[in-house]
Design brief:
This protein is mainly beta. Helices cover 6% and strands 33% of the residues. The protein has a 5-stranded mixed β-sheet with strand order 5-36-35-34-33, with no helix packed on it. A hairpin with a 5-residue loop joins β34 and β35 (573-576).
C-alpha cells in the first residue's frame, strides 16, 4: 500500500474521571466550544479505543477520520518501514549477511559508546500526566517489543526482542544479559527450547508480514544457560537469509520453519547442510524464480505456523497465507507425495478468505490442539475485529475436527478494555497473536491478541487477566499518588510471545508484547472482573530493547546536566533528566521525530504519527489537574495541515534549522515552516512553503540559515517507485525540484537523510536507504549510500567509498568535517581526507540506527531501533 490515501479513525475524546466529576472535554474541545455528538457511554468507550499506546492517547484531542483505525496504522507502519529498505524492488537473499561480513572487515574508531537509556522506563511516571500522556494506564515499567520467549524449569527465561537480539535471565525474568550481539541480525522471529535443552533462535521478525527487519536464518545454542550465539551456530546455509520466520516447530528429528518464503525443514541432529524447501504455494515468486521481481512477490509464499500430529510426527499441517488475503491461503497436508489443501476441518475455516495469520498450540499430553485464526475477509470488511476465532481440536490431531471456542464478541464481553465500535479484540489479529497451554492442564490456555486472555475450562469461559489498559474501568483514576488509580498493574498492549516456565517448583507464565515482558503465576489471582492482581513487569532496564525513531538533547533548565528524550515505537516519548535513575514517559502513542531546544531540554516538539506534532515548554510535567481544568494542560497540539489530510509518512520528518532553532521544517506532501519555535500554539501557524506534488511525501528535511532541502518519494512502494529532492527558502521563495535522473548518479531508492554544512548551505550530504542493485531487484536501484553536492544539488557525487552495502538511515556532519552515518547495522565514520570508513567505537550493537544528533556536550547521540539511545565523544572519532 502507498503511504497516502489511508486515514486514521480519530474521534472526539472525553474522559470519565469519576462519578462525582462526570465528563470533561479535552483542551481542544474546551477552547473550541464544540461538543461531542456521542452519548455518555459511547464517549467513555471511545476514550479507550484507538488511542492506545501506539494509537492516540486516551487524552488526545479530536479529529475526524474515515474507517481504518489503528489497525490500519500498524499495517501502514510496517509497509512504510519495509519500503525504505526494499523499494524499488525486493531484497535478494544474503544482503544483510554480506553487509555484516563487510562491516567486520572495517577498522574501528577509538572510543566507547554509553548506553544512555539502559535504565528502567516507567510508562506510568506520575510526573507526566499531561494531556498527551498515557501515564496511569497501568503498564508500568516497559521496554521495546518482545517477539520471542522461551523458559525452562530452572528459572531461566530467554527473550527475543524485535531488533535487539536475545536476552537471558537466570531469575525468572529481569537482570537480563544479551547473548546474541555477535550475530549479523538481531531481529527476532521465534525462540524455542528443544527437548535437549538447546535454544533455537529464528531471526527475522514476521508478525507484520511486511517485516521491519529481515533475518539471516536460524541459530542454535547448545548451552543457553552459559553460552552466547555466534555466526558458527547457524543451521544450514544462506537459504533463509533475507526472510522472516514466524515459527519453528519440531517433529521427531526434524525442525520445521514457517517463513515468509514458504515452509522449510532441516535435520535437528545434524546442523550442517542445506535447508529443504518443503512447500511454497507460488515458487515462481521466490528469489531466483521467474516472477521474483514482481511487486507482489514478498506476499506470495507466507506461512504463519506448522502443527505436528502428536501421535505421528510425520504428519504435519501447514497454515499458509498472507494476512491481506490471497487465493493460496489455507491449510495444507501432504497426501500422495504432494501438499494438498485441507477441507472439512469443522468450525476452523478452510476457505482462502477466512484463513490468514494462524497460531497453533498443543497440550503436553497430546489430547488438545488449539488455534487462533485471523480472517482476511473480516479484516477488510469488519471495522471491529479481524479475528475469525479461537478453536480447539479435542482429538489432539491438527486435522480436527475443530470447534470454535471463542469469537471476538465473547472475548469483548469477558472483561476486555476494548468494547467500543471500531476497536475490539482481534482488530490486529494479524499482528498480535500468541497461544500456549498449561503443561499440566490441557484445558488451561493463555491466548494473546491486543490483550491477554485466559480460559481454565477449555474455552467455555474466558477472562482477561491482562486488559489493554485500565482507562475506562471504574477502578481507574489519574491520581498521581497512584500508578493506575485503584486498578491493578496490567500488561502493555499488543501481545506477541509467551512461555511457561518455573523456578523452585513455582510455575509462571511470561508474556512478550510491545512493552517488553511481564510475568505472573501460572494459576494467578484475579479480581471480580477477571483482571489479574499479580502481574510483575520484568523490564528493569537491563534489557534496553527500546525502539527509538529519534533523539533530542538539551540543557536541563532546572538541573545541572542534559535532558535526553526520544520518540519510540509504541512507547511514546521517553524523558531522562540529569541525575535520574528511572526514565518517564511524557507523551503517549508512537513517538516519531523530535525537536529539542539545545539551550532548554524541556522545550520539546514531539511527533505522534503522520505529523501529529505537539509542543511543550516544561517537559510536559503535569499532575493531571488538566482533567478538571483544561487550562492547566502544558502540551499543545500544533500539527501541520498535512496531518488532517493524511498526506504524510507514518513517521514523517521534522527538523530545526541548524542556525536558527526557532525555524522548524516539517515534511508531508508539503514543506511546512514554523518560525515561532516552541512558542507555536496552533497548526494554523505553519507556512506552506512548497507543494512537493500529488502523491509525493517527504522522507527527510534539513535547513540551514533559511535554506531548506526536502527529499521525497511517491509512489513509495515498489509499484512505480519514484524519488526526488526539492530546494527552496524558508520564506516560501525560490523553490524548485532538482533533476535526479534514474541514471545511477543518485540511485532510485529511498532518500533517508540530509545533512547541510553549516559553513556552506550549497554543501549537502545525502543518505540513501535500501541495498544496491546487486541485492535490490528493481529499476534504477543503483549503487552507493552516501552522496555529496557542493553546488546546491545541481550535481552529485557518490562518496560511499568502501562503505558496506547496507541501508543508511541518517547522516551527520560533525565538527571538523568528520562524517557519521547511521545504518541498519550501526554507525560508521570517516574523517576529512580519508577514503576509509571505520566502525564508530567498539561496543555499539549491530542494530538499526535511525537518527544521529549531536548534543550541547559535543557527544554524538544515536537513536537505535531496538537497543535504546547511545552516545559517544566525537573527539574520539577523529
Amino acid at each position: 500500500m502507498t503511504g497516502i490515501g489511508r486515514r486514521r479513525r480519530r474521534v472526539w475524546v472525553v474522559l470519565a474521571t469519576s462519578a462525582a466529576l462526570g465528563l470533561t472535554v479535552t483542551q481542544a474541545q474546551a477552547s473550541s466550544g464544540r461538543i461531542s455528538p456521542f452519548g455518555v457511554r459511547e464517549l467513555h468507550q471511545q476514550a479507550l479505543l484507538h488511542q492506545q499506546q501506539k494509537g492516540l492517547s486516551a487524552f488526545d484531542e479530536a479529529g475526524d477520520d474515515e474507517d481504518g483505525g489503528e489497525a490500519q496504522e500498524e499495517a501502514e507502519q510496517a509497509d512504510q518501514y519495509a519500503e525504505a529498505r526494499t523499494s524499488p524492488g525486493i531484497v535478494a537473499p544474503g544482503a544483510y549477511g554480506a553487509a555484516y561480513d563487510a562491516l567486520k572487515d572495517l577498522p574501528h574508531a577509538h572510543g566507547r559508546w554509553d548506553d544512555v537509556t539502559r535504565l528502567p522506563y516507567d510508562s506510568d511516571d506520575p510526573r507526566y500526566r499531561d494531556i498527551n500522556s498515557n501515564s496511569s494506564g497501568g503498564a508500568g515499567r516497559v521496554t521495546g517489543r518482545v517477539t520471542g520467549l522461551a523458559a525452562d524449569n530452572h528459572g531461566y527465561v530467554y527473550a527475543g526482542s524485535a531488533n535487539g537480539g536475545v536476552f537471558r535471565s537466570r531469575t525468572g525474568g529481569g537482570h537480563w544479559t544479551n547473548i546474541s550481539d555477535h550475530l549479523p541480525a538481531l531481529s527476532t522471529g521465534d525462540l524455542q527450547l528443544d527437548g535437549h535443552g538447546r535454544l533455537w533462535y529464528a531471526t527475522g521478525e514476521a508478525n507484520t508480514s511486511a517485516t521491519s527487519f529481515l533475518g539471516t536464518g536460524v541459530y542454535v545454542l547448545d548451552d543457553p544457560r552459559h553460552g552466547s550465539f555466534g555466526k558458527r551456530d547457524r543451521v544450514g546455509g544462506d537459504e533463509l537469509e533475507s526472510t522472516s520466520i514466524n515459527a519453528l516447530r519440531f517433529a521427531g528429528d526434524k525442525v520445521w520453519a514457517a517463513t515468509t518464503a514458504g515452509v522449510w525443514s532441516h535435520s535437528a541432529k545434524t546442523l550442517k547442510g542445506h535447508w529443504k524447501l518443503e512447500f511454497a504455494p507460488n515458487p515462481d515468486y521466490l528469489p531466483g524464480g521467474s516472477k521474483a521481481s514482481d511487486p507482489s512477490a514478498p506476499y506470495k509464499n507466507i506461512t504463519s505456523d506448522i502443527a505436528v500430529d502428536p501421535k505421528d510426527p510425520g504428519k504435519v499441517v501447514l497454515a499458509v497465507g498472507w494476512r491481506g488475503g490471497d487465493t493460496y491461503n489455507g491449510f495444507y497436508a501432504r497426501s500422495g507425495g504432494s501438499w494438498q489443501r485441507l477441507t472439512g476441518l469443522g468450525d476452523l475455516p478452510s476457505n482462502a478468505e477466512d484463513v490468514g495469520n494462524v497460531t497453533f498450540a498443543r497440550s503436553a499430553d497430546g489430547s488438545r490442539y488449539y488455534a487462533i485464526d485471523q480472517s482476511p475477509e473480516q479484516t477488510a470488511e469488519n471495522p471491529d475485529s479481524g479475528l475469525e476465532g479461537i478453536f480447539v481440536s479435542k482429538s489432539g490431531s491438527p486435522t480436527g475436527p475443530w470447534t470454535r471456542i471463542a469469537t471476538y464478541q465473547q472475548l469483548r464481553d469477558s472483561g476486555s478494555a476494548l468494547t467500543g465500535a471500531g476497536y475490539q479484540p482481534g482488530i490486529q489479529a494479524w499482528y498480535n497473536q500468541f497461544l500456549t497451554v498449561d503443561p499440566k492442564n490441557p484445558d488451561h490456555v493463555y491466548a494473546g491478541l491486543e490483550e491477554v486472555f485466559e480460559t481454565k475450562d477449555g474455552g467455555k469461559n474466558w477472562s482477561v487477566p491482562g486488559p489493554y489498559w485500565n482507562f475506562g474501568f471504574p477502578c481507574w483514576s489519574i491520581d498521581p499518588a497512584k500508578q493506575t488509580g485503584d486498578c491493578h498493574q496490567t500488561v502493555h498492549a499488543d501481545q506477541h510471545s509467551v512461555a511457561i516456565g518455573s523456578n523452585g517448583g513455582a510455575p509462571y507464565v511470561v508474556v512478550g508484547d510491545d512493552g517488553g515482558t511481564f510475568r505472573r503465576p501460572l494459576n494467578g489471582s484475579a479480581d471480580a472482573s477477571g483482571h489479574a492482581t499479580d502481574w510483575k513487569p520484568l523490564n528493569d532496564g537491563t534489557m534496553d530493547a527500546l525502539q527509538y525513531y529519534s533523539v533530542g538533547v538539551g540543557v536541563d533548565p532546572s538541573r545541572k546536566g542534559l535532558a535526553v528524550t526520544g520518540g519510540l515505537q509504541d512507547n511514546g516519548q521517553s524523558q531522562l533528566r540529569p541525575g535520574e535513575r528511572v526514565m518517564g514517559s511524557n507523551f503517549g502513542g508512537d513517538g516519531g521525530d523530535t525537536i529539542t531546544d539545545p539551550a532548554n531540554g524541556c522545550n520539546i516538539a514531539q511527533e505522534y504519527v503522520y505529523l501529529a506534532v505537539s509542543v511543550t515548554n516544561n517537559c510536559a510535567v503535569n499532575d493531571g489537574s488538566w482533567v478538571t481544568d483544561p487550562s492547566k494542560a502544558t502540551t499543545y497540539s500544533v500539527a501541520p495541515p498535512d496531518n488532517a489530510t493524511s498526506e504524510a509518512r507514518f513517521i514523517a520528518p521534522l527538523n530545526a534549522d541548524i542556525k536558527d532553532p526557532k525555524t522548524w521544517v516539517a515534511g508531508g506532501r508539503h514543506v511546512w515552516i514554523n518560525t515561532k519555535g516552541y512558542a507555536i500554539r496552533s497548526g494554523t501557524e505553519w507556512l506552506n512553503a512548497y507543494d512537493l506534488g500529488e502523491g509525493h511525501t517527504a522522507t527527510a528535511v534539513a535547513s540551514s540559515g533559511g535554506r531548506v532541502y526536502a527529499a521525497w518519494c511517491g509512489p513509495c512502494n515498489n509499484q512505480g517507485f519514484t524519488r526526488g529532492i526539492a530546494v527552496g527558502n524558508a520564506d516560501g521563495t525560490g523553490w524548485h525540484q532538482l533533476s535526479l535522473p534514474v541514471d545511477g548518479t543518485v540511485p532510485n531508492r529511498y532518500l533517508s537523510g540530509l545533512a547541510i554544512d553549516p559553513k556552506n548551505s550549497d554543501h549537502v550530504l545525502l543518505a540513501v536507504n535500501g541495498f544496491s542493485r546487486k541485492w535490490t531487484e528493481g529499476p534504477g536501484a543503483g549503487v552507493g549510500h552516501l552522496f555529496e553536492t557542493r553546488d546546491g544539488g545541481l550535481s552529485w557525487k557518490d562518496v560511499s567509498g568502501n562503505l558496506p552495502d547496507v541501508p543508511a538511515n541518517s547522516v551527520a556532519l560533525l565538527r571538523g568535517g568528520t562524517i557519521a552515518l547511521g545504518t541498519d547495522l550501526g554507525v560508521l565514520v570517516r574523517t576529512p581526507g580519508s577514503k576509509t570508513w571505520r566502525v564508530a567505537g567498539d561496543n555499539l550493537p549491530t542494530t538499526a540506527v535511525m537518527q544521529l544528533r549531536t548534543g550541547p556536550d559535543g557527544r554524538l547521540y544515536a537513536a537505535t531501533h531496538g537497543r535504546g539511545i547511545w552516545a559517544i565523544d566525537t573527539r574520539k572519532l577523529r
